[in-house]
Write a structure and sequence with these properties.
The chain contains 6 helices and no strands. It is an all-alpha fold and 109 residues long. It has 2 domains: 37 residues, no CATH class; 70 residues, AhpD-like (Up-down Bundle). The chain is globular and about 40 Å long.
Amino acid sequence: MRDIKQTAGRTQLGEFAPTFAQVNDDVLFGEVWADETLDMKTRSTIVISVFMGRGLITDALRHHLQYAKDNGITREEISAIITHAAFYAGWPVAWAVFALAKDVWGEEE
């Protein structure tokens, strides 16, 4: 099991929704994301695809795009992921995700 320390739930919702915050930090990230059955790039690809499929173009997606980059997904790979998912999630959604991805990856590669 990977050792992933997540505190976003407790930081943002700890006092307002302590149970949700605990499950987010300890179960979703502490257990599910830490499970080594899938590598981190695959997990990031799945999350981005699900967000796209549901039309969830939010700050949470921007954070997951950053995680994807941190997990080794290159600019070329994210472009291919978004393009492929566009046919299933919708072209306007892909345009919106590309705008976030350009902010995350920039022109660095």
